[in-house]
Amino acid sequence: MLESLEGQCQCGKVHYRVQGVCATVFVCHCLECQRQSASAFGMALWVNDAKVLLLSGELNQWLRATPSGQQMLCRFCHTCGTRLFHQIKGQNQLSIKPGTLNDSRQLKPVAHIWTSSKQDWVKIPENTLQYPENPPTFDALFMAWEAQHSAPDRSLILA
Ligand SMILES: [Zn+2]
Ligand SMILES: [Zn+2]
Prior knowledge:
This protein is mainly β and 159 residues long. The protein has a single domain (3-132), classed as glutathione-dependent formaldehyde- activating enzyme (gfa), CATH 3.90.1590. The chain has two helices and nine strands; from the N terminus they run E-E-H-E-E-E-E-E-E-E-H. The protein has helices spanning 31-37, 139-148; strands spanning 3-8, 15-28, 42-56, 59-65, 71-77, 83-88, 94-96, 111-113, 129-130. Strands 1, 2, 3, 4, 5, 6, 7, 8 and 9 form a nine-stranded mixed sheet that branches. Strand 4 (59-65) and strand 5 form a beta hairpin. The longest helix has 10 residues, at 139-148. One zinc ion (ZN) is lined by residues 9-11, 13-14, 77, 79-80, 82.
């Protein structure tokens, strides 16, 4: 289902709209995500066939090499630095930092990855997929998301 997601950075200069198909939402406990979020974990909302429309403001970007040798494009507000999007170069799948969405209440992560570096005090809810590092494939995460949103009244419509 094509969805329209809107969000903004912390200072409010950047407003964005993303159209695409939500594929999954998960929490990552890797040390990169802890440092990037300046917190205990990072969250990711993956959107397929994503079209990003910048409604206002200006983005900066930097490229990070991933452990698997790919290049990840990281985009953030030029003024306040809020991280908004990640994208592996050459892939059309966009990762939104979901805390920047105008309405993120519907977003319940279906999985926690890199639990091997999770902070001890973080308790993972039952019935949630868990992986010590990256999952071998993300198929289980896509299926769990689909199951969570298959009922029409629980579909994710944020705009
Ligand atoms: Zn900003
Ligand atoms: Zn991570």
